[in-house]
Design a protein that fits this description.
The structure holds 2 protein chains of 2 kinds. Chain A is α/β, with parallel strands linked by helices. Chain A has 2 domains: 4-118, STAS domain (Transcription Regulator spoIIAA); 160-381, no CATH class. In chain A, 72% of the residues lie in helices and 8% in strands. Chain A is built from 12 helices and 4 strands, in the order αβββαβαααααααααα. In chain A, helix 7 crosses helix 10 (307-317), helix 7 packs antiparallel against helix 12 and helix 9 (264-303) crosses helix 11. The N and C termini of chain A lie far apart (98 Å). In chain A, 35% of the residues are buried. Chain B starts with 8 loop residues before the first strand and ends with a helix. The chains are: A alpha/beta, B alpha/beta. Chain A binds chain B through residues 3, 6-8, 10-12, 14-15, 37-39, 41-42, 45-46, 69-71, 74-75, 78, 98, 101-102, 105-106, 109-110, 112-113, 115-121, 349-354, and chain B through 6, 8-9, 70-71, 99-101, 105, 112, 116-119, 122, 124-126, 128-133, 137-142, 144-146, 162, 164-165, 167, 192-193, 195-198.
C-alpha cells in the first residue's frame, strides 16, 4: 500500500510529546506558543498571572500555538479575562482559523461554566443535622409501613393459600436452606469443638469430665446453634435478598410487576419470608446436631467420654423446653432477616453504589436485630428448662 | 473516494473474526477509518455493530484478525493498547455508564485526574467546561446521575467522553432516547467538535437523520462483514437487498427527502 509509509510517519509525529504551552515576550508582544492542550498546559496553570505583562494595551499573539483543544482554549480565555479585570486592554490575534473557531465555541459556554462554579450547593451544618434527623425518623416510619404491608399481604395469602407463589417459595427454601447446609454444618461443628475443648480442659481438672455433655448440649441447643445459623443466613441470604430486589428496583423491574398487576410484596417478599421461616428452623436443628457432634469428638479424644455415654446423657440434660425454646426463636429470626433484607432492597435507588450501601445496611441491621431478639428471648425464658 | 482518505488511517481492521460459541458474528471483516472522519456503523439487529466497537476498545477479544488504532495493534488487548485507548479516545456508552456514586462534575473529572497532573481547581474548571459544551445547564454539575433524566445522562456521559479532548470518539447510539431538539443539538455539537478538534468519530446509530447530517461515511454491516462502506448518498442508492430494505422504508425515505430538500442545519440552529 502506498500510503502506509506516510501514515506511519504522521502517526509517530502525533505520538511524540508536544512542546508545552507557554507565553513568550517578543518585544512588547506576548506570543502564545506550544501545544495548548490538556497535555501541554500541565505546567502552565498559576504561572500565567505572574508573568510581567505589559501595561495598557496588550495584543496577545496566538499564531505560535501548535495545537489547541478545549482545555487549552479555556485557559487562554481565562487568561484574557483576568488581564481585562486588571484593567488591561487585551486583544487576541493571529490565531489559525480552526483555533479561532474552537475558541469561539468555548467562549460561548464560558458563562455557563462560571454559573456552574457558583451553583455549588452549600448547606450549613445545622440544615444537614436536621435533614439527617428527619431521615432517621421517617426511616422508622417506613419500616413500620413495610412490616404492616407485609403482614397484610401475608394474612391475605394465608387465608387463600392457593395465591402463595409456591415455586418462588421452594426456590428460597433450596437456596437459603439446602445449599447452606455445608457451611452451617462445618461452622457449627467447629464451634462445638472449640466450646468443648475450652470448657473440657477446665472440667477435667475437677474430674468432672461427664459435664462436658451439659456444657456443649445446653449452650448449643438453647443459644448458640440457632444464633449461629441465623447469623450465617443473614450474611448469606439476607444480603442476596437486598441485592436482588435492589437491582430489580434500579432496572424498574419492580415497577414492571406493578404495572402488570402483580403485587411485588406477594411475589418478592412473601415467598422469601415464608421460605426463610421454613428453612431456618431446619438449619437450626442441623446446627444442633453438628455442634453436639463436634463436642462429642472432643469429649471422646480429650476427655475419654465415649460416644455412647455422651449420647445417653444428652436427653437427660436437654429438656424438651430447652429444645423447643431454641427452635421457637428461629422463625422470628427468619422473619427479621427476610424482612430487613427485602425492606433494604426496596430502599435502593439510583445505581450500583446504592445497592452496595443497602446490602451492607441489610446485613448489619439484621444481625443486630437478631441478637437483640435473642437477648429478649433469653430474658423471657430465664432458667426454665434447666434441671427442673 | 472522499478527500479524507488522504488523511492517515486511525483505525485499521483486517480479517476480523468474531465468534460467540458456534455463532460467527464477523468473518474476514475489513474496515479503515481515517482521521477527521465521522463514520457510522449501521446494520440490522445482531449484525455485531456494538461488538465491533467493543473489540476496537479491547473490551471484547476477537477470535482472529488484526485491529490497529493509531498504528498500535489492539486486538490482543495488551496493557499498552488499553493505555493508548484510555488516553486518546473517549466513549459514550449506550446507557451512559456514569458512576452513580459521583456527581456529574466528579464523573467528568475522573479521566482528567487519572491521566493529567493538573491541579484540582483547574480539573474541576475543565470538567465544568465539558459539561457546558455537552449542553447541560449550570446546576447539573453538582447533581448525581440518579437525579438526571435519560437525555441529560447521555449528555453528561458525552462530557465525560470528551474530558481529555480525545482524538477519537466512540458513540454508541448517541441519539437514542433523546428528544428531537436534543438530538439535533448533539449532532451539531459533534460536527462542531469534529471541525475544531479534527476529531475522528465512530458511531453506532439507527438515527437516520443523524446518518444523513453528520456522517462522512457509513459502514453497513451484514452477512458477517462490511457489505458497503460509502457516503450516505451513495449508500442509499446501493442495490444490495439488505441495504435497500434498511434505507428504503418510509423512515429512510423521509430522512433522505428532508436532507435533500430544505433541511440545512444552519437554518435550524443558529450558530
Amino acid at each position: 500500500m502506498s500510503d502506509t509509509a506516510e501514515t506511519a510517519r504522521e502517526l509517530v509525529a502525533v505520538d511524540s510529546p508536544p512542546a508545552p504551552a507557554s507565553v513568550r515576550l517578543d518585544g512588547d508582544t506576548p506570543r502564545c506558543v506550544g501545544a495548548w492542550t490538556v497535555a501541554g498546559i500541565q505546567g502552565l496553570s498559576g504561572r500565567l498571572a505572574g508573568l510581567p505583562w505589559p501595561q495598557g494595551s496588550v495584543m496577545l499573539d496566538g499564531g505560535g500555538i501548535d495545537a489547541l483543544d478545549t482545555a487549552g482554549a479555556l485557559v487562554l480565555i481565562d487568561t484574557v479575562a483576568e488581564l481585562r479585570e486588571r484593567g488591561c486592554n487585551v486583544g487576541l490575534s493571529g490565531l489559525r482559523p480552526s483555533h479561532q473557531s474552537l475558541l469561539d465555541l468555548v467562549s460561548e459556554h464560558v458563562q455557563t461554566v462560571r454559573e456552574a462554579a457558583a451553583a455549588e450547593p452549600n448547606q450549613p451544618w445545622l440544615a444537614r443535622v436536621g435533614q439527617g434527623t428527619v431521615a432517621r425518623f421517617s426511616e422508622g416510619g417506613n419500616f413500620l409501613a413495610f412490616i404492616g404491608e407485609t403482614t397484610v399481604v401475608m394474612l391475605g395469602s394465608l387465608l387463600r393459600p392457593w395465591r402463595i407463589r409456591w415455586t418462588a417459595l421452594a426456590v428460597v427454601v433450596q437456596n437459603a436452606g439446602l445449599t447452606a447446609l455445608p457451611i452451617v454444618g462445618l461452622l457449627t461443628f467447629l464451634i462445638g469443638v472449640v466450646i468443648a475443648y475450652q470448657g473440657g480442659t477446665l472440667l477435667s481438672t475437677y474430674g468432672a469430665n461427664i459435664f462436658i455433655v451439659d456444657l456443649v448440649a445446653i449452650a448449643m441447643v438453647r443459644e448458640l446453634a440457632p444464633l449461629l445459623a441465623a447469623i450465617i443466613v443473614a450474611g448469606r441470604t439476607g444480603s442476596a435478598f437486598t441485592a436482588q430486589i435492589g437491582t430489580m428496583n434500579v432496572t424498574e423491574e419492580v415497577d414492571a410487576l406493578r404495572t402488570i398487576g402483580i403485587n411485588p410484596f406477594e411475589i418478592l417478599v412473601l415467598p422469601k419470608v415464608l421460605g426463610l421461616m421454613i428453612s431456618l428452623p431446619l438449619l437450626s436443628i442441623f446446627a444442633d446436631v453438628m455442634s453436639v457432634f463436634g463436642g462429642m469428638v472432643v469429649a471422646k479424644f480429650l476427655l475419654g467420654v465415649d460416644f455412647g455415654i455422651f449420647l445417653d446423657r444428652v436427653p437427660e440434660v436437654v429438656s424438651g423446653i430447652s429444645f423447643v425454646y431454641g427452635l421457637a426463636k428461629t422463625p422470628v429470626f427468619a422473619a427479621i432477616i427476610a424482612g430487613v433484607g427485602c425492606y433494604q432492597g426496596f430502599k435502593v435507588s439510583g445505581g450500583a453504589d446504592s445497592v452496595g450501601r443497602q446490602t451492607t445496611q441489610s446485613v448489619v441491621q439484621s444481625i443486630f436485630l437478631v441478637i437483640i431478639a435473642n437477648a429478649l428471648f433469653a430474658v423471657a425464658i430465664g432458667g426454665r428448662g434447666l434441671y427442673d | 473516494m472522499t478527500e479524507s482518505s488522504r488523511e492517515p488511517v486511525v483505525i485499521r481492521i483486517r480479517g476480523l473474526r468474531t465468534q460467540f460459541g458456534r455463532q460467527v458474528v464477523h468473518e474476514n471483516l475489513d474496515l479503515d477509518i481515517h482521521r477527521g472522519e465521522v463514520v457510522a456503523i449501521v446494520g440490522g439487529s445482531g449484525s455485531g455493530k456494538t461488538t465491533l466497537v467493543r473489540e476496537v476498545l479491547t473490551l471484547t477479544r476477537p477470535a482472529g484478525g488484526s485491529i490497529q488504532v493509531f498504528g498500535q495493534e489492539v486486538a490482543d488487548g495488551s496493557a499498552k493498547a488499553q493505555s493508548l485507548l484510555a488516553r486518546r479516545s473517549g466513549v459514550l456508552f449506550q446507557q451512559g455508564a456514569l458512576f452513580t456514586s459521583l456527581t456529574i462534575q466528579q464523573n467528568v473529572a475522573v479521566p482528567l485526574r487519572e491521566h493529567t497532573g493538573l491541579d484540582r481547581d483547574l480539573i474541576d474548571h475543565i470538567a465544568r467546561l465539558k459539561i457546558a459544551l455537552a449542553g447541560l445547564p449550570a446546576n447539573a454539575a453538582w447533581k448525581y446521575p440518579a437525579q438526571l433524566s435519560g437525555g441529560m445522562i447521555k449528555r453528561a456521559s458525552l462530557a465525560r467522553a470528551l474530558a481529555l479532548d480525545p482524538e477519537l470518539l466512540f458513540l454508541d447510539e448517541p441519539s437514542a432516547g433523546l428528544d428531537p431538539v436534543s438530538a439535533n443539538a448533539l449532532d451539531e455539537l459533534i460536527l462542531q467538535l469534529k471541525d475544531s478538534l479534527k476529531l475522528t468519530v465512530v458511531m453506532v446509530t439507527h438515527d437516520l437523520d443523524s446518518l444523513w447530517r453528520v456522517t462522512d461515511r457509513v459502514a453497513f454491516l451484514g452477512e458477517r462483514r462490511v457489505l458497503a462502506y460509502d457516503a450516505m448518498k451513495a449508500l442509499s442508492r446501493n442495490d444490495h437487498p439488505l441495504i435497500k430494505a434498511y434505507f428504503g422504508g418510509p423512515r429512510g425515505r423521509a430522512a433522505q427527502g428532508a436532507e435533500e430538500t430544505a433541511w440545512k442545519p444552519e437554518s435550524v440552529i443558529p450558530s
